[in-house]
Specification:
Radius of gyration: 19 Å
Structural class: mainly alpha
Strand content: under 5%
Helix content: over 70%
Order of helices and strands: HHHHH
Shape: globular
Distance between the termini: 55 Å
């Protein structure tokens, strides 16, 4: 009896696994990369907008390339994965919910410990 229950649980777990195409970033990795890209966007919007000597689009692109290098992916991998997630609402919604929860958690920790909030997170 226990073996059959274990077997059904095992089958259930494998059947629930996302079957992403091999060139699409896995959910947790996509979440981390997307969170960093969103922070870069907020940072360039908040800081470089005040500096008229900077090209905001160019600075944002440079920083995004740094994010991609940090996560060992290419720009094409990210944007292909991003388009795939956008086209699959059952995948993008949990990803965005998780990012929002992590952002709220980060804000709470910073405010409760007296640290100054990251301006990229506060809009």
């Amino acid at each position: 009896m226990q073996k059959s229950i274990f077997f059904f649980i095992l089958i259930f777990l494998f059947s629930c696994k996302n079957n992403l195409p091999k060139d699409i970033l896995e959910g947790k990795k996509m979440e981390k990369v997307l969170w960093d890209v969103l922070k870069v966007d907020a940072y360039t919007k908040n800081y470089f907008l005040k500096d008229t000597t900077k090209n905001i689009v160019l600075e944002n692109a440079k920083m995004q390339l740094q994010v991609f290098a940090l996560h060992n992916i290419t720009k094409d991998q990210f944007y292909k994965s991003y388009q795939y997630y956008l086209a699959n609402s059952n995948l993008i919604k949990p990803l965005l919910d998780s990012i929002a929860n992590n952002a709220n958690k980060e804000k709470y920790i910073k405010y409760s410990t007296g640290q100054q909030a990251d301006p990229a997170m506060v809009e």
